[in-house]
Write a structure and sequence with these properties.
6 strands; globular; binds guanosine-5'-triphosphate; binds magnesium ion; six-stranded mixed sheet
């Protein structure tokens, strides 16, 4: 079940949703949003603030907030929590060195009162890189187990997995 299906059940009447994409820097958030929107991803710089994309899918309007993940700007994430319907946590599955950091930051987010009503999707990105953890391995971790679903995601695959984010 995708993030959209879960939120849809909760908010049957509302057609506009606010999705917050966060995760450590370099995990691939901006790439994912651009790919989904059919935009060029050949030159991408680290996000220093945020980008907003509005995407229409079926009869839903998704306002996707893609927020920069560098350590020095993570404290600003809290400015984007209000009225979030869906939280997408993007993991660089190949970055084993920073996995603890990644878990700790997610753990902190999940303590946030203002995100308590939001559905969580973890995207295990960069599956094309040798040695990357699989979604099952990521989901096994007790700290990440809280997620309603961990989806495979690889933005470098030939077939862009649009459904991994909002599919049924
Ligand atoms: N191999 C591989 N590289 C990827 C994939 N997705 C994104 N990248 C690369 O990862 C790097 C970082 O991607 P971004 O989209 O800028 O990452 P980000 O999470 O937005 O980073 P910040 O804005 O700094 O928080 C870029 O060089 C992308 O080309 C993937 O699925 N596989
Ligand atoms: Mg970015």
């Amino acid at each position: 079940m995708g993030l959209l299906s879960i939120i849809r059940k909760i908010k049957r009447k509302e057609k506009e949703m606010r999705i917050l994409m966060v995760g450590l820097d370099n995990s691939g958030k901006t790439t994912i949003v651009l790919k989904i929107n059919g935009e060029d991803t050949s030159v991408i710089s680290p996000t220093l603030g945020f980008n907003i994309k509005t995407i229409t899918y079926q009869k839903y309007t998704l306002n996707i907030w893609d927020v920069g993940g560098q350590r020095t700007i993570r404290s600003y994430w809290r400015n984007y929590f209000e009225q979030t319907d869906g939280l997408v946590w993007v993991v660089d599955s190949s970055d084993l060195r920073r996995l603890d950091d990644c878990k700790m930051e997610l753990d902190n987010l999940l303590k946030e009162e203002r995100l308590s009503g939001a559905s969580l999707l973890i995207l295990a990105n960069k599956q094309d890189i040798k040695g990357a953890l699989t979604p099952a391995e990521i989901a096994k971790d007790p700290k990440l187990f809280c997620a309603c679903c961990v989806r495979m995601c690889c933005m470098f695959a030939r077939k862009v997995s649009y459904k991994c984010m909002i599919g049924d």
